[in-house]
Amino acid sequence: MKRIVIVGSPGAGKSTFAKALAKKTGLPLFHLDLIWHKPDKTNISREEFDSALNRIVSGESWIIDGNYQRTLEIRFQCCDTVFLLDFPTDVCLSGITSRIGKPRDDLPWMETELDAEFKEFVLSFGEKNLPEIYRLIEKYREFKNIHVFRSRKEADSYLSSL
Radius of gyration (Cα) for the chain, nearest Å? Predict the structure, then answer.
């Protein structure tokens, strides 16, 4: 396990899982939200993002936390291990609401509310985003170590076993 992709709905705990995994493995951790978002809540250009991502995936070892659907294929091509946190929507929404008003080191600002657009993204994640993630998992299954967790308990148990 030297090149790791962590994906799942917002609020599933990707960043928390990634930090714990980085601590256990010593691998460098990259949060895609920190690359894409600027502190003023604007974004860098797609070209800048892709360039930064290409620098990361060309590295010898890494953990990449984040969805960014249009870049999943390149990350799946370059990784050796995939973790999907496929948790129920209510668990993810609870995860998001629990972090509101708390500083985070994986996002360049503090969330102060759950805006309607973001909530809708989470509510539709299973229908709109998961099919593509599972398609890539199937495509790369024989070449990659794939771990799908359906609960925080499963993810925590895996981390404890390392």
Answer: 15
Element (H, E) at 48: helix 46-57
Give pLDDT tens digits for 90-133: 999 999 999 999 988 888 888 888 889 999 999 999 999 999 99
Average pLDDT along the chain = 95
**Cα separations in angstroms, 88 against 23, 45, 137, 143:** 26, 32, 19, 27
The Cα 81–Cα 105 span in angstroms is: 24
Reported pTM: 0.94
Contact present, 85 and 9 (Cβ < 8 Å): yes
Tokens 């090149």 sit at which residue? 3
Phi, psi for 32 (deg, rounded to 5): -60, -30
140: closest CA among 79, 66, 59? 79
